[in-house]
Amino acid sequence: MSNQLQTNLIAAAIGATIGVISAASIFIYQKVLEKQQHAGKNAHLDEVDRRLTELQTELERLRVQQNQQRKKKKLNPKRENDTTYATTDNDTDVDFSTAGDEEFFDCSDSDNGISDIENRTTEATCPGLNFSALDAHHQRGGHEEDDYLELRNLVDTYPDSVDVVWRYARSCYKYSNCTTDANVRKAVICAGIDACEKLLDVQNADLHKWCGILVGVNGDFLPVAEKIKNGYRFKEHVMKALEMRPNDADLHHLLGRFKYEVANLSWIERKIAATLFSEPPSASYEDAIDSFQKAEDFSVKVNLENWLFLSKCYIALSNYKPACQWLEKICDLSVTSEEDERIQNDARQLLAKYSGYQ
């Protein structure tokens, strides 16, 4: 994925979903309980919020259609011929990585990511359509709005095509990161989730993967209790995708991030989660290491983010020798992207802090 995608993917971690819940969050939780005593009023407010979301989605749809019409007027006949769907039959690898302790997971197009599509043939759910150009755009970046507009039209025409829908969900995620308008971002994300949820009975790993990512992004717009539920939904989608594609490195990395954030919960965060749900999530740093190691084993590319989180897990376990070994590997590489530079800087700081503990 592109560097544009690196900036701000999704944050719906347990850090942002189940935690980071401080004293201020406890106050919010108390307010949630108070609202439960006014169920009738809440039901009305929920309905109003639902309708506002629908209106925002429709407005965004009209806006992008208008933009597309303007662009079509500017295109010459040669350009129109170039934008048909008959391109090539080769799918393109898409890279995936995560970044930041405050984020649950992140998508990027950097070389340290892991493939989303690994030389797999596009499923023939839409005869005559070919997605090679869209997949290539996704890998290179820079076509976020154009791809979103194109897939928005395709999903209207082929709402039952899993190949169209999961790519639409992917484009919703990418396009949502290109806008600073929170209302537009929310509308685009919700539209992508809605499209995916209509096909969740279809056994497709990419559908669950990108639906889960959008569910995570949507946590930014939810109150605390709903964010916690989002964490559960996210894990469910990742697990279902892994059942269908057990050797997918980025899915194992996502699961590792989930486990890491759960293991990193504070006592008060665990108490709040236990109060809200009968079975709060449970995971250890060893569990997270297991997932990160699987991501490393299955990855076909260097994933600096995965190395960084492996080191963080070992540091949390006071096992500093393997932690520093992973950090040294990061520091020894030559990096070119801003994201890789950020990871390398983090690794240098951790190495300087813990190298004396070996």
From TrEMBL:
<keyword id="KW-0802">TPR repeat</keyword>
<keyword id="KW-0677">Repeat</keyword>
<dbReference type="InterPro" id="IPR049039">
    <property type="entry name" value="RMD1-3_a_helical_rpt"/>
</dbReference>
<dbReference type="InterPro" id="IPR011990">
    <property type="entry name" value="TPR-like_helical_dom_sf"/>
</dbReference>
<feature type="transmembrane region" description="Helical">
    <location>
        <begin position="9"/>
        <end position="29"/>
    </location>
</feature>
<dbReference type="GO" id="GO:0005737">
    <property type="term" value="C:cytoplasm"/>
</dbReference>
<protein>
    <recommendedName>
        <fullName>Regulator of microtubule dynamics protein 1</fullName>
    </recommendedName>
</protein>
<dbReference type="Pfam" id="PF21033">
    <property type="entry name" value="RMD1-3"/>
</dbReference>
<keyword id="KW-0812">Transmembrane</keyword>
<keyword id="KW-0963">Cytoplasm</keyword>
<keyword id="KW-0472">Membrane</keyword>
<dbReference type="GO" id="GO:0008017">
    <property type="term" value="F:microtubule binding"/>
</dbReference>
<dbReference type="GO" id="GO:0097431">
    <property type="term" value="C:mitotic spindle pole"/>
</dbReference>
<keyword id="KW-1133">Transmembrane helix</keyword>
<comment type="subunit">
    <text>Interacts with microtubules.</text>
</comment>
<keyword id="KW-0206">Cytoskeleton</keyword>
<dbReference type="GO" id="GO:0005876">
    <property type="term" value="C:spindle microtubule"/>
</dbReference>
<feature type="region of interest" description="Disordered">
    <location>
        <begin position="65"/>
        <end position="91"/>
    </location>
</feature>
